[in-house]
Amino acid sequence: MRWLRALRPILESLSAIIVGLIVGSILMVFFKYQPLKAYVALFKGAFGSTGDILETLAFSVPIMLTAITFALGVRTGLFNIGAEGQMYLGAIGAVAVAGLLHLPPVIHVLAATLAGMVAGALWSVIPALLKVWRGVHEVISTIMFNWIAYHFSIYLAIYFLAQPGRAERTVPALPTARYPVLVEGSTLTAVIFVAWAFCLFVYFYLWGTRAGYELRLVGENPHAARYAGASAKKAILISFLLGGVAAGLAGASQIIGRPPAWSLYATLGNVSSLGFDGIGVALIGRNHPLGGILAAILYGALAHGGRYMEYQAGVDSEMVRAINGIIIVALSIPELWAIIRRRIKR
Fold it and tell me: Distance between CA 102 and CA 113 in Å, rounded?
C-alpha cells in the first residue's frame, strides 16, 4: 500500500497525459489533421536532438520560477496569482541595472539578477500587507496589481529605458551583465543553474526549516498552526515575498539569460503570460518545488516542440496552442481537485 501511495501521483499524471493526448487527437481529427504525425513532430521537436533538448530547457527556466510563486501561495493556503506582475517588474529591474550601469563582469550579472529579484519582491509587498492588515482577498489584489504592473512597465520601458532609435525595445543588457550561453547556437544560458538552485532552496526551506514547517502548517490547518504558536501573518508575508523573489528572477532570466534579444520588448512580449502559465505548471508539479522543475520541462517540451507541429505536420498555430492547453489542463486536474477537496474538508 505504501508503494501504491507513492506511485499514485505518477499514475495520475500518466493517466492525465493519455487523456490529454486522446482529447487532442479527437480535436485534430475533427479539423482534419493527422494526430500521429503531429505528435511525432512534437516529440522530435522537443527531444529530437541535443539542440532541441537545450531549447526545451531554455523554455522551462522562467516557468519553473513563476510556478514556485503560485505553489508557495497554495502551501500557505493562498491563491497568489500575482507572478505575472511581479515578473514584469523583475524584468524592468534587470533592464535598468544590466543596460544602464557599467560594472565588472561577475558583479554586473549578480547585481542585475538581484535587482530583478528585489523588484519582484517589492511588488508583492502591497498585496501581502492588504491581506494581512485588511483581509483583502489575494486573488482580487494580485489581479489588480498585475494590470498596474503591466501598464507601469510599458511606461518605464518606453519613456525611460528605450534603446535610442529602437522604440520597440529597451536598452539591451551589456555583455558584462549577460549569463554565458552554454552551447553555441542555443538560447540556454547558465541562468538555468540559478533557477534550479532557487527551486532547491525553496524545497529545503519548506521541508528543512522551522519557518517552512510553520508556513505549510498555516496552509494545511490554520487552527492547529494557531494552537502551535505559528504566526499566520508572518507566514503570509514570507510566502508573498519568496513568491515575488521567484517571479522577479523569472523576469530577469528573460533579459540577462535569454538571447538573442537581451532586452525587454516595449509590448512585454518576451515575458507576457509566463506568470499565468506558471499556475498550470505548479498544479502539474503538485505545488512542489522539485515537481515544478519536471513540470516546467514538460511545458518547455510542449512550447518548443509545438512549433514543429506547425511546420512539419501542418497544424495551425492556433490549434497547436489549443492542443498544448488541453494537455496542460488535463495534467492540472488531479492537483486542482486535491486542492478543492482540502478546502471542502477544511
Answer: 15
